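quick one, 334 residues, struct below
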Amino acid sequence: MTLHETAKALVRQGKGILAADESSATCDKRFEALGIPANEESRRAYRELLFTAPGIEKFLSGVILYDETIRQVASDGTMFHELLSAKGVLVGIKVDQGLAEDTNNQGGKVTKGLEGLANRLQEYKSMGAVFAKWRAVANVTDKPGDASTRENASRLAAYAATCHEKGFVPIIEPEVLMDGLHTAAQAEDAIVEVLSVVFDALESREVDMKGVILKTSMAVTGKDNPLRAEPREVAERTVRALRAAVPDRLAGVVFLSGGQSSVEATANLDAMAKMEPLPWPITFSFSRALQGPSLQAWLGSSDNVPEAQAALINRLSLAVAADAGAYSKEMENI
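---
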């Protein structure tokens, strides 16, 4: 497929993207909180139960992997990336190398990973990967146009250009964090500011927007604010922010769950789908909102794999329903 065809396939109606690209350290923290042994074999076994869940290909266009995961094998000796490709699920890879302190902006964070990126992409291509992801972060309380935001935007643009040179569809993820007491209105303003800077940087490099996918936050209330914005407000504010900052010719928009509960993220996605048609196709690229119930069902025991896989399929089916604007909270009780 061409870059444009791959991008369209990733955001096609009725399917979403599973973000299974947590770093080993992040994955281990989640395991430790549930009493699951935090080691490479546990991480491998957990990813295997996700990727071998019966019927995931009905709901997923792609899966984003981590460097460790794309090199791992299932119990039958099949590489994970081969297993996914055989199901018709596109293989993606997280290529940034995490956050670092921004020496030019006290308290700011910038994303590492540009050094050696072209060579890493070439290796991942040999493993069947066709799209990539790079995450940067910003806080709602950051000052508009601060140095960290500009630097992260520049790095996202450089990453996207390198992806295109190597034949990859880049997912750009400038996440506006859910941390804090902010309102949904403040989140909306922050999303507009961050995305405007990011897309200015991409335009300056003449990146082909039809081959780029945006992974973005929703305009949700801060997680420490007890006054939660309802899905309709979240949807209206998120869509308004996107219309203000995102070019119409972008290949598509996928939403991260970003600390929301499974139900909250799904309900908010449904409210946005009910506002279609939009200038771009939208779908989900959740991590914890899909995996949380599955991880809690598994708890590191092979005996629990069928229950954990059923939990994943249930969440995927609800997310796909939400992407069609056909979800209701009553479905959570089925």
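The domain at 3-333 is CATH 3.20.20.70 (TIM Barrel).
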